[in-house]
Each structure stands twice: as C-alpha cells, then as structure tokens.
Amino acid sequence: MEATKVALIGCGFFARNHLHAWRDQAPAARLVAVCDIDPDKAKSAAAEFGVAAWYDDAAAMFDAEAIDLVDIATRMDSHRALAETAIGHGVATIVQKPFAPTFEDCVAMRDAARKAGVFLAVHENFRFQPPMVRVAEILGSGEIGEANWARISFRTGFDVYNTQPYFYSEERFAILDVGIHVLDLARVFLGEAERVYCQAQRRNPKVRAEDTATMVLRHAGGAVSVVEHTYEARRLPDPFPETALTIEGERGAVVLRPGGTIEITSGGELRTEEAVEPLRPWMEERWRVAQQSVPATCRHLLESFRRGVPAATSADDNLKTFALAEAAYESAATGRAIAPPSAP
Questions:
Q1: Contact criterion met (CB below 8 Å) for 21 and 298
Q2: Number of H helices, E strands in the chain
Q3: Can you tell me the distance from the alpha carbon of 304 to that of 297, in angstroms, rounded to the nearest whole number?
Q4: Pairing of strands 69-72, 92-96
Q5: CA neighbor of 71 nearest in space, from 116, 103, 33, 42
Q6: Residues 6+ apart with CB under 8 A from 288
C-alpha cells in the first residue's frame, strides 16, 4: 500500500507534537502539506519538517494538493468550518479535541462525514498514554474484578496561559480543555455514564470561565467515578502533565502514580509496575506522557483509516464524551445531576 498523504492544519504550540508524530509514521504516512493562518508559522514548519508545500488558506490547500488524510490541530472555534471543508473534498479528517465549542457543532460534523462516507475521528489522546493503555489492559484482564469506583484527577498549577493566552477569554474553558480528557478516561475504564453532577469554580480572577471542576459520574453498570481537574493547584511537586487515578474493583485495585508507577492489588497482594517507554529524540522528560500519547494516537488513527474501519475515537464515540462535558456544564449551572444528551 502506498504511503498515506497527510496534511496538517495548525502549526502552533501543541501542533509541533503532531508534526513530529506524523513524521514518525513514515513510511506508512507522508506529510505533504502544512497550513496555518499565520504564514510565517506555516513556512517555518514546512522548512523544519521537510514538508514540500505550505499554505495560509486551507481551502486553497485542498484545491491544490492530493490529500488522503488531514489533521486539524487548531482552536476549537475553527474546527467545524475546516472539517466541513475537508469532508467536502472527500478527505479523511482528524479533529483535535475538543471536537467543537458546542454539541450541535459536533453532531453537524458527524452528520456531514456520515453523509459523505468520509472517515472522521477526534485526536483524543489521553487514553493512548502508555500508563493509561496499561491500566486498560489490567482492567480488561479481569484481575481486579469488575471496576466499581474510581477517582481520576488532573491537578496542576502549570502556566498554561503562557503559550495559550486565549484561555483567559474562553466562554467555556477547563471542562472542555482538559476535563474532556478525564471524562473520556472515565468512559474507557468504567463504561458509559448515565448522570453527571458537577461543581465548577473560577479560582483565577483573570480567567473569564471555569478553571476548576469536580464531577461525580454514575455509570450504567452501577460504578461511580469522581473526575476532577484544575489549572489552579498549588501543590508541589506539580505532576503536570500527568493524570493520577485510583480504580477499585470487586477483588482489588489499580493506582497510577505520577511518573508512570502502577500499583496493582490483587489476591490480597500488592505488586508494582513501571508503565514508561523510552523517549524519542524530539521528546522532553517533563512532557513525556503527553508527547508519547500523540504518536500513539496518530498511529491508531492512521491504521484505522488505512484498514477502512472506525477509529476508537471516532466522531460517534467522541460525541459520547462531549455529551458528558455538556451535562457537566448544565449541572454546574443548575445544581442538579444531569443525564448526558444523546446524539440523534
């Protein structure tokens, strides 16, 4: 099979990880074009990563290039227009999380791809972090029995505003930015949730929207999870960008510590594993977990596209995660537990 011709839209802060990840997919994939509304960023990315063509207009890129798969790594308010343009050109599409600003936008993109018969997936990468993959394997083995309680926690004081200053003015912020990641993990580990109760906080007065949220989910099988996140923690050492979790089951428990240490209690005994992988040359030690998740996600999405099957993080799947975020916002506003909306 020939290499899949990939284009990337968005050459900003986090998109550099996507550029490295796609280059690492060779020979199965080849980056043929990059695009950014800032021409200097697009031109610089093309030069650094050996990409033949760069653009500052996505429509012009789709008209000029033969593209099999596009990765949209831009701000969420641009996702729908870019995705619908790509789908209109018959190009398989990956959209960076969050899928879009609203549930209605997500459904519209899903419907457009479904009608056109075009592959559409979301680059939801926390579930592809090496420690999370290993936790899922342990749960799937049945070693601790059926999971019935969990706490999933992403708490940091890292200055995310330095590289993404637009976070200050978002109308909906932390739940969609990082909360959606931990909500997705709750689905992966405990199954679909029937109700969500959320208390949101704005602890940083410079931020327009919520920067902290604490959520309680009741899952369909009876399990309960506490899902929490904040950008305003003041604890040292700061575990950024890692997620801690505890999952209890009928016969044991799994605990993930910062640094990738997994503690498994089973059969009345405790053992420890280290769920870490070697760093690639372009990765940094502090960003290990986040950076390693990107090529793993891209590899899965590429393989799914090439096999002609939906990705694990397909549009339909991600709508279920986005629905939990919608329910969290409604719960925070009303003080009630909310059932997540269903996509038509």
A1: yes
A2: 10, 14
A3: 11
A4: parallel
A5: 33
A6: 276, 279
β 92-96/120-123 pair status: parallel
Task: Report the chain (344 residues): mean pLDDT per 10 consecutive residues.
Answer: 96 96 97 98 98 98 98 97 98 98 97 98 98 98 97 97 94 97 98 98 98 98 97 96 97 96 96 94 94 97 98 98 98 98 88
Count Cβ atoms below 10 Å from residue 17 Cβ, excluding itself: 22
| 29-35 and 53-55 beta bridge pairing | parallel
Q: How far apart are CA 5 and CA 305, in angstroms?
A: 12
Closest CA to 207 of 169, 176, 159, 165: 169
Say what the pTM is: 0.97
In 10 A of CB 40, how many CB atoms?
10
CA distance 64 to 162: 35
Of 150, 218, 196, 168, which is closest to residue 332 (Cα–Cα)?
196
Distance CA 261, CA 275 (A): 6
